[in-house]
TrEMBL record:
One of its GO terms (molecular function) is ATP binding. Its main location: membrane. The chain crosses the membrane at residues 14-37, 68-91, 162-186, 246-269, 281-302, 703-725, 745-765, 825-844, 850-871. Pfam families: ABC_membrane, ABC_tran. It is a multi-pass membrane protein. Residues 19-310, 705-895 form the ABC transmembrane type-1 domain. Residues 356-592, 862-1100 form the ABC transporter domain. It is found in: Membrane. It comes from the Eukaryota. Gene3D superfamilies: ABC transporter type 1, transmembrane domain (1.20.1560.10), P-loop containing nucleotide triphosphate hydrolases (3.40.50.300). GO terms for cellular component: cytoplasm; membrane. It comes from Kluyveromyces dobzhanskii CBS 2104. This is WGS project CCBQ000000000 data, contig 00015. Keywords: ATP-binding, Membrane, Nucleotide-binding, Transmembrane, Transmembrane helix, Transport.
Length: 1103
């Protein structure tokens, strides 16, 4: 239990803890004072009608003083309670802040092997955030009430014992049984709360995947599959919560019954003691009043124990997340312990200088300890020069950068930075002196300027201007309404992949660290921009250490030093001119392959050379003579059994698909304005509206009505119990009437016990049934939300308020709070109504004047409640054209290329073709049918898209490949398609082959892209859209994909969105776009001869 307070800091919190302790102590003593004062009033009443007071006015005066003393205590309670609750709320907020700060620091401090080991990381983040809220609540309001009640319970027991220890023991004799039941039921509640939290994490992961990969899910038509997975997980959450609710209800009902029974057993003993003269009536009433308040305190404590229990479970979940059991081998444990001890006393040299040396490095990812990514790699990076590390995707280039930044530590061999061993250097010093620019760039919600200056907060406006000029962002800034102050992300614009990479380069320019690592950081740029930025980088980095990890050999100059890697080893190294001088070197072959230009066919019937003596058309191609290395990479067996490979003839089918976009306009500025107006953050919904929606949407409303009925019974039983117990109390008075006869006392004792049983049973059923109904409602809301999200258009996901993380938190976390509305709130309101109604009738019947005096305070109560509710509501709520005038046609079965600079609108066309965005003007037709007349699912079954940034869910390689497919796919089909994209050897190297779980952190960008292409091929589409599908591939694999397009996809209309000249040459026709408009159209050779836009783009890349 005390775990929830582990984030308190006595040094900083002593004052607020002291104030909270004193005010809680004072608050806790209030029931004792009230009990004593009530006993004094009752003692005074026994003198009524006697000669103790000479006059009636004297008696009334004394009675008034004693009564108003109770009112005075109540007046003093107001400021004390306010200060106490405020202090406890502040304690909870401080703890929440510290836990979140610790979590953030923890996330930053983890190396990549921790992230690799946590496959369900996104769902964990969401649930841990919810756990922080539960810890905050348990250490604030719940702790305040329990602390106060503990003081009250101790003081009430002491007071009761003082007045009559024997009567107190008799009243509390059932307390041990009560404690046993509370402990047992609490353990059950804790058990099922843990299970519910665990399953909620799984549901959050499914929802997170659905929100982040919504485009892919639409294209693959797998909304139904994600909906089914989500529902299965949500139903498990419901099952665990219902069981938790069952034991919580049993706990509350048993406590309620036993507490009420205490008074009957105490009454009999007290009455006997009065008759014997051992106690007077005032002492008995004081004991009874103390024990009555004791029972109330116990009941209130029980309700908060559930919250404390949830906080305890939440804290255990946070601790388990931060401090999981180590699953690594003993070797890694030993090495990590050594590294952690050295990193704590890491060195921070004054100057960052010297060579970077990788000496005999071998490395395997912790999750795949037997699959070595690096094998005895030795590389010497000279200081002050630009060095290149090249190789095919998956060869281990990016892993070297990760090791240099100490993201992984479980390697063998040594890495030296100058004269220091890497492990002896301070982590902060390394990050201050090394900048890594990766292929993907993370942008934050905020302005473009803030996204750039995050690398250097002290940068001036002139520095930002120079950085933007260096990264060629000026053209993008010209098209942005507010320039560098334009908002990005949520509430702002979205940059293209190339523009995002330019932002990353601008950040690196501002940091200007001694060492710069560029890891495929220019892959999304068009050829002209790439060439310009490469030259700018060389000029900027003159005399500084720069490491370029790439598969683009055109960036390498003759005097640059190159390391060529393959399958985790360095196969060649040397200056470029030295490697090219060797005609049989791998580097020469790969360089030739990347620059190899295929002559376009002169006619539709043009065929590749083929000789019967050759095993395949590829074997007879001159390029095949250069290296077995290429064929080992692409998998030659793929083509042996495919007769279509032998002939590259383009076969024309009757009724061939026709793509005919005409005059497509998307006035994005106007639509964004309308979207913002429609998507303004709504205010809080009125309670009446929420209750109305709940009534209509809640399934099995009969259980809700039944729960409300038991709430009404519980409400009625309260004043009835008070009435019948008052009859028992009259038996204490020795007035000579029959009220103290045995028959009278027995009769009312049985009635009181019966009402206690009714109250206990009704408490159980109202708590359980309303809790069950609340969970049914929450489950239905989650399922409906998931269903509606799966049907939303792509525009909806782009609206400012529809942030995926917030939607996930809203559906999985915030909806939990609605349980209280259907259970606790409705129960409390129903009980209050009937308590007030029955109690008021009884009070008026007993004495209407006194009743009117008591209810005279109701207006003030309602006034203060209304003001509080209004303030709470106030604070709760405080929390350009892409394509223009485009017209083109893709006839027959062709390979159709779309070329243009980054941000020109190329990728938008694929979204329009698949109806992920609607076309307001103009039309797109396939055949002679407007796509708006097609069924969306039927249309998307005919189209496959390979995106620039492939997405995979948390599952095996096999599950990701067959994702969304209606037919069964055999192993041979999977093997064939994997060979066609040169992934068969990679999959065979995985621990469980096709059944190995995918982790993108353990795959290179090229491997992920090829896997995405394989998935698209399995769907057997009629139209395939390749959106920069070779941007992360090396020359050999790019060539293989190009040949795949030319020779295998002969029955498929292929639309290629590319910056690559190699891919342009594969296309039958090219469409060149600039700023959303078509500049020219034709074949690659025709457009080059025109010396227009395409010639400008291509020629710039050749220098």
């Amino acid at each position: 239990m005390f775990d929830i307070y582990r984030n308190l800091e006595l040094k900083n919190d002593w004052l607020i803890l002291t104030v909270a302790a004193f005010t809680t102590l004072a608050n806790g003593l209030v029931p004792v004072v009230i009990s004593i004062l009530t006993g004094r009033v009752f003692n005074l009443l026994k003198f009524l009608g006697t000669d103790t007071y000479k006059t009636k006015s004297e008696f009334v005066h004394e009675l008034t003083l004693r009564s108003f003393s109770i009112a005075a205590v109540a007046a003093c309670v107001i400021p004390i309670s306010w200060v106490s609750i405020s202090c406890w709320m502040a304690i909870g907020e401080r703890q929440g802040f510290r836990i979140r700060s610790s979590l953030l620091s923890f996330y930053f401090d983890r190396d990549l092997q921790w992230y690799d080991a946590n496959q369900n990381i996104e769902g964990e983040f969401i649930q841990v955030n919810r756990c922080v809220e539960e810890v905050r609540a348990s250490s604030a309001e719940a702790s305040a009430i329990i602390s106060q009640n503990i003081v009250s319970i101790i003081a009430l027991i002491a007071t009761s014992m003082y007045y009559s220890w024997s009567l107190t023991l008799i009243i509390l004799c059932s307390l041990p049984l009560l404690v046993i039941l509370v402990v047992w039921f609490s353990k059950k509640v804790e058990k099922f709360s843990k299970l519910e939290n665990a399953e909620s994490t799984n549901a959050s992961s499914i929802l997170a995947w659905s929100l982040s990969a919504f485009q892919m899910i639409r294209l693959f038509d797998t909304s139904y599959l994600e909906q089914a997975n989500f529902e299965t997980s949500i139903f498990k959450c419901r099952k665990f919560f219902v069981k938790s609710c069952l034991f919580a209800a049993l706990n509350a009902s048993s406590l309620r019954f036993l507490v009420l029974c205490m008074f009957v057993q105490g009454f009999w003993f007290g009455n006997t003691q009065i008759k014997r003269g051992n106690l007077d009536a005032g002492d008995v009433v004081t004991c009874f009043s103390s024990c009555l308040l004791l029972g109330s305190s116990l009941s209130g404590t029980l309700q908060q124990i559930v919250t404390i229990q949830k906080g305890k479970v939440a804290m255990q979940r946070i601790n388990g997340f931060i401090l999981p059991k180590d699953t690594l081998t003993d070797m890694w444990e030993k090495r990590n312990s050594i590294i952690s001890s050295t990193s704590s006393i890491g060195l921070s040299p004054i100057f960052c200088e010297g060579d970077i040396v990788f000496d005999n490095i071998s490395f395997a990812y912790p999750t795949r300890p037997d699959d070595y990514i690096l094998k005895n790699v030795s590389i010497h990076i000279r200081s002050g020069v630009t060095s290149f590390i090249v190789g095919k995707s998956g060869s281990g280039k990016s892993t070297l950068a990760s090791l240099l930044l100490k993201m992984y530590s479980n390697y063998t061999g040594d890495i030296k930075f100058g004269r220091y061993n890497l492990q002896s250097l301070d982590d902060s010093w390394l990050t201050e002196n090394i900048t890594l620019v990766e292929q993907s760039c993370t942008l934050f919600n905020g302005t473009l300027k803030n996204n750039i200056t995050i690398a250097n907060k002290d940068a001036s406006d002139d520095d930002v201007r120079k950085a933007c000029q260096f990264a060629l962002l000026n053209s993008a800034l010209h098209n942005l309404s507010d320039g560098v102050n334009t908002l990005l992300g949520r509430h702002g614009v979205t940059l293209s992949g190339g523009q995002q990479q330019r932002v990353a380069l601008a950040r690196a320019y501002l940091r200007d660290t001694p060492v710069l690592i560029l890891d495929e950081s220019l892959s999304a740029l068009d050829a002209m921009s790439r060439e310009l930025i490469v030259e700018a980088i060389r000029h900027w980095r003159n005399g500084k250490s720069t490491i370029v990890l790439t598969h683009e050999y055109s960036q390498i100059k003759e005097n640059d030093y190159v390391y060529l890697m393959d399958e985790g080893a360095v196969v060649e190294s040397g200056f470029k001119h030295e490697l090219l001088a060797k005609s049989d070197s791998y580097f020469t072959q790969l360089n030739y392959l990347q620059n190899f230009i295929t002559e376009p066919p002169t006619s539709p019937d043009a065929q590749l050379p083929y000789s019967p003596g050759c095993n395949s058309a590829y074997a007879c191609n001159p390029i095949s003579r250069f290296s077995r290395f290429f064929f080992d990479t692409v998998g030659l067996d793929t083509y042996h059994n495919n007769p279509t490979v032998y002939n590259s003839k383009k076969r024309i089918r009757p009724n061939a698909e026709r793509i005919d976009p005409a005059n497509i306009k998307r006035e994005l500025q106007n639509s964004q304005k309308g979207d913002l107006e429609e998507n303004r953050k709504p205010g809080l919904m009125k309670l009446s509206c929420i209750l109305k929606k709940m009534t209509y949407s809640m399934p099995k409303r009969r259980y809700l009505l039944l729960g409300l009925l038991f709430s009404a019974i519980a409400g009625i039983s309260n004043p009835l119990f008070s009435y019948t117990f008052s009859k028992l109390l009259t038996g204490i008075a020795q007035d000579g009437s029959n009220n103290n006869s045995s028959f009278y006392l027995m009769k009312w004792s049985i009635i009181v016990l019966s009402l206690a049983a009714v109250d206990g049973v009704s408490t159980f059923f109202k708590d359980f049934l309303l809790g069950y109904c609340s969970e049914l409602w929450i489950t239905q809301l989650r399922i409906d939300a998931m269903s509606k999200i799966s049907r939303c258009s792509l525009e909806w996901f782009g609206l400012p308020n529809n942030n995926s993380s917030e939607l996930n938190s809203l559906i999985m976390n915030d909806l939990r709070d609605l349980r209280g509305l259907a259970s606790e709130f409705l129960s409390a309101i129903t009980t209050l109504i009937f308590v007030a109604f029955v109690g008021l009738i009884w009070a008026i019947a007993a004495g209407w004047k006194l009743s009117l005096v008591c209810i005279s305070l109701f207006p003030a109560f309602l006034l203060f409640s209304g003001v509080y509710g209004s303030l709470l509501q106030v604070y709760e709520t405080t929390y350009k054209n892409e394509i223009a005038e485009l017209e083109t046609k893709a006839h027959e079965i062709v390979t159709f290329g779309i070329v243009g600079e980054s941000g020109s609108g190329k990728s938008t066309l694929s979204l329009l073709l698949t109806r992920l965005y609607s076309v307001p003007d103009g039309r797109i037709s396939i055949g002679k049918t407007d796509i708006n007349r097609w069924d969306e699912e039927a249309l998307r079954r005919q189209i496959s898209i390979v995106e620039q940034k492939p997405k995979f869910f948390d599952g095996t390689v096999r599950e990701n490949l067959v994702y969304g497919m209606k037919k069964t796919v055999s192993v041979s089909e999977l093997s064939s398609v994997l060979r066609s994209v040169a992934l068969s050897s990679f999959v065979r190297s995985l621990p469980y082959g096709l059944d190995t779980r995918i982790h993108l952190g353990l795959m290179s960008g090229g491997q992920a892209q090829r896997l995405s292409i394989a998935r698209a091929l399995l769907r057997d589409p009629k139209i395939m859209i390749l959106d920069e599908c070779t941007s992360a591939l090396d020359a050999t694999n790019s060539f293989a994909i190009a040949e795949l397009i030319k020779s295998v996809l002969i029955d498929v209309t292929v639309i290629v969105i590319t910056h690559s000249e190699q891919m342009m040459q594969v296309c039958d026709r090219l469409l060149v776009i600039n700023k959303g408009k078509v500049k020219e159209e034709g074949s690659f050779s025709e457009l080059l001869e025109r010396r227009g836009e395409l010639y400008r783009i291509v020629s710039s890349s050749k220098g």
